[in-house]
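P.,

For your records, the input lines for the assembly:
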Amino acid sequence: MAEHQLHPETWVDQYADYLFNYAVARISDAEIAKDLVQETFFAGLKSAANYKGTAAERTWLIAILKRKVIDHYRKINSNKGKAEVRMNYSSHTDADGDWLEEQIADPLSTHENSSIENEELGLAIQECISKLPKKQSLVFKMKTIQGMETEDICKELGINPSNLWVMIHRARTALMDCLNKNWF
Amino acid sequence: MISCEKAAIICNKKQYNEATFYEKLQLIFHLLICKTCAKFSKENAKLTSLCKKAPLCCLPEKEKVEMKKELQEKI
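Structure tokens returned:
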């Protein structure tokens, strides 16, 4: 008996942002990332029969997206020469002593971890947002991520400002709770 | 003196730089005497900084609706 079941009609609401974040971090082109997310949904639908229910829906979709990202890079690198890895010892040979020792990463530096960590943080936040009620997550995203003006959001959603601030408050409290559990 | 509910609303507004000077003043005095709100305010600020630090982006609602429509056709 399968533990998980697919609900394609809820995919866009639940996972679109999460998958989009994942894709953008790897493709850094919003338009292509969007297309890949769309393709992922289609591919998921097509192979829904193969879904065994052992993994959660989101994990399964991420796995498909991962393949799509790889395929994308394969496509743009299809010429053999482009795929070749070229290594230079030093790009500026007249720099002060081009010793290899100077070019390895500083083991004490934590700087290169921070972008990985930030990406994970982004996904964690996105996951928490997806657990919020639809309206709250919508308001929170418009306000925090898209940085829209209060007035514009009110107009678009047909609510009054005090209504909006209550929703923001609930969303933020829930997010703090969720992040405290999952992140710290 | 303002109530905790009002303090929370002002605190949230402050996260988006939308609190007025008078509101901020009210908030500061409230935080001095209310430990619960002080804690909330601190965590709230932390959430803001986390959201700024993380590369958050999301699809505009319009594109999601389109996506949903296309997906719906294939189901």
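Two observations worth noting. Chain B has one domain: 4-74. Residues 4-74 of chain B form one domain.

Regards
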